[in-house]
Amino acid sequence: MLATRTLLSKQTLAVLSRQPACFVHHGDYGNWGNTNVAVVFSGCGWWDGTDVHEGVYTMYHLSRNGARFQMFSPNQQQMHVMDHMRKQPGSGENRNMMTESARFSHGQGMMQMQDLAKLDVNSFDAVIFPGGHGITKNLSSFVKDGKDCKLHNDVERVLKDFHRSRKPIGLASMAPMLACRVLPGIEVTMGYERDDNTRWGNWPHTTIVQAIKSMGARHNVREPYEAYVDEKNKVVSTPTFMWETEYHYHYIFDGIGNMVKHVMRMSTK
Description:
- This protein is of the alpha/beta class.
- It is built from 9 helices and 11 strands.
- Helix 2 packs across helix 9 and helix 7 packs parallel to helix 8.
- The N and C termini lie far apart (44 Å).
- About 4% of the residues have low confidence.
């Protein structure tokens, strides 16, 4: 009996030794390597593009759950460049969204940042938009026009194409606003509907919540680490950095993780 167990253990180790390291690290919903997800960026940095944490956490959780992904961004100038120390616009500096978003990329070929104009819904199983003020400044005119804003042409096209194709759409922090503007009647979460300040953090961006409700969307209150799933429309949203916190970044990490898991789950249906 002992000899048999030893032999089986050696055989198991031999099999595992021939597998890539990621073999024993994939998550719950990975159809390993067969799910292809487009991730759309709007620059680099919370105040004028895609939030760094939300972008990186998205890619981490996609990798953890066995997805392949490609990164996209509009090849156009962003609204302005913010000094992230002073939280003020810089003087006279112009930057390209795609060039700034490329700071997220690592590697060559398909892992480089791609022009959003080239995103074809037929090549992907799902799309995810991480959050950041680039949502309201670069991917839409929300910062100027509020609830009557217009979306970047390719952003609107991509959202409508994935929705029409019944493919899941993942949205973090401010990104649900984009879908609410062009997909009537969807259900999302952006966290709380009023700024309930606590010792752990606060909700300073609730005016956007009121705006999406006026667009005809249904809003559901959730914590920053939760995700809300609109099963009918295949839209998954999470509040993440709609909640402002100084220390509890693991809540943001978990919120992105829950969103990604539901996107992966629905992409296999």
